[in-house]
Amino acid sequence: MIPLFRKIRKQYADDNKPVKYIRYAIGEIVLVVIGILIALQVNNLNEQHKNKQLDLDAMIEIRVDLINSMSDIHQNLFFMRDYLKSAWKIKRLISTSEIFPDSLGSDLLKMTRDEYLYPSSRMYSTIKSAGFKVLTNDKIRLELDDLYEFTFPRLQSVTSIEPSIKEYFFDYVRNNFRAVSTDTLYNSEKKVEDLSLEELFHVGWAYESKYIPIDYNHFRNDPEFTILLDNSIRWRMMKIWRYMECMEQTMETIDLIEENLKGKVKLSQIREFYHRLEKENEVDKIIDIIKKGDTDDQPYDISARNINGLGWTLFNVLNRKDQALKIFKLNTEIYPDSDNVYYNYGDCLLEVGDTVNAIKALHKSIELNPKNADAKKMIANLK
């Protein structure tokens, strides 16, 4: 093409036709300019496409980080509420019981525990270091900035507003309590390195360990302890409030991100249902979500395992047994070929005293898996 233009330009010059030569030269310049503009436009379109993809990738990754953080928030909130219940129980019993109640030992241990948030921040740190240029949505950017720079730090150990309850009780516990472990592992033939995770967890996490006051009469009338307990209860309640606020804000940010991703990518099913259980009427909405199945706009984990976990959370943690039964029954309808969902349904039915239907569910579990020893043992114990 270039040799052709050169030949035409030489011909006009040799023929001494300056007007035609100028017209041609101008036309050639125009073509070159148009070519450059087209190349720039193509390059701009490629950059825009690249930036859009980076924006999507950033939102996908930050969504995963926030959902992982939600697991930590929810777990910590569960424990903090449990610790608060123990503190209230201690306050009631020491004012009424002149003899140390043995059940109070584990509550005294829980009273001194504390929880802190360790949010997943890998993608936020990357976005922040890039000057937030990757994210184009101003609202999402502002929400993330508020979460990571203000809300999350209030629940982290170094930047928490409330003091460490564990450290607050440390001196008093050291001087007035005796730590007791009721485990018998030291009498067993097991080596320390052979201890299972379950054994270590039950011994170390207040299930089989407790604090015993050295002098119960002094302890229950000690004004120093009363002050410590009252202050810790107030701080614990403030921490629970912060966790609840944090959970709500984090979920709103996740919802906002998913709304922006909707229709652009298929969301991976990694969200769990526990955040919805803060409200009584949310179980019916959860059931509707599960029944919809695996759709493009279904961000929730609807696996049999996760539904079982939801059922036991309702049953054991929230004491909403009727709703738990609805969830377990639904799981048998969604996963009719799973022996485990029938086993869990039967177990829950037994817990509420519905022996007849429990046996039916357990037999179905054995029918699907003849090797299900737990179901067989459960039925045998009923005879």
Describe the structure.
With 383 residues, the protein is mainly α. It has two domains: 70-265, no CATH class; 266-383, Serine Threonine Protein Phosphatase 5, Tetratricopeptide repeat, CATH 1.25.40. It is built from 15 helices and two strands. The protein has helices spanning 2-14, 18-96, 104-111, 122-129, 138-151, 165-176, 197-204, 216-220, 223-261, 282-292, 304-317, 321-334, 339-351, 355-368, 373-382; strands spanning 177-181, 209-213. A two-stranded antiparallel ribbon has the order 1-2. Helix 2 (18-96) crosses helix 4 (122-129) and helix 6 (165-176) packs antiparallel against helix 9. The chain is extended. The N and C termini lie far apart (95 Å). 23% of the residues are buried. The model has no long low-confidence stretch (mean pLDDT 84).
In short:
By secondary structure, the chain is mainly α.
Shape: extended
Overall tally of domains: 2
Strand proportion, as a percent range, falls in: under 5%
Q: What structural category characterises the helix and strand content? A: mainly alpha
What string, H for helix and E for strand, traces the elements in order? HHHHHHEHEHHHHHHHH
Task: Report how far apart the termini are.
Answer: 95 Å
Chain-averaged pLDDT: 84
> Strand count, sense and closure of the main sheet?
2 strands, antiparallel
User: Uncertain runs with pLDDT below 50, 5 residues or more?
Assistant: none
| Quaternary organization | single chain
Strand order of the largest sheet: 1-2
The number of E-state strands comes to 2
Note the total helix count.
Answer: 15
Measured as a percent range, the helix fraction is 55-70%
Radius of gyration: 33 Å
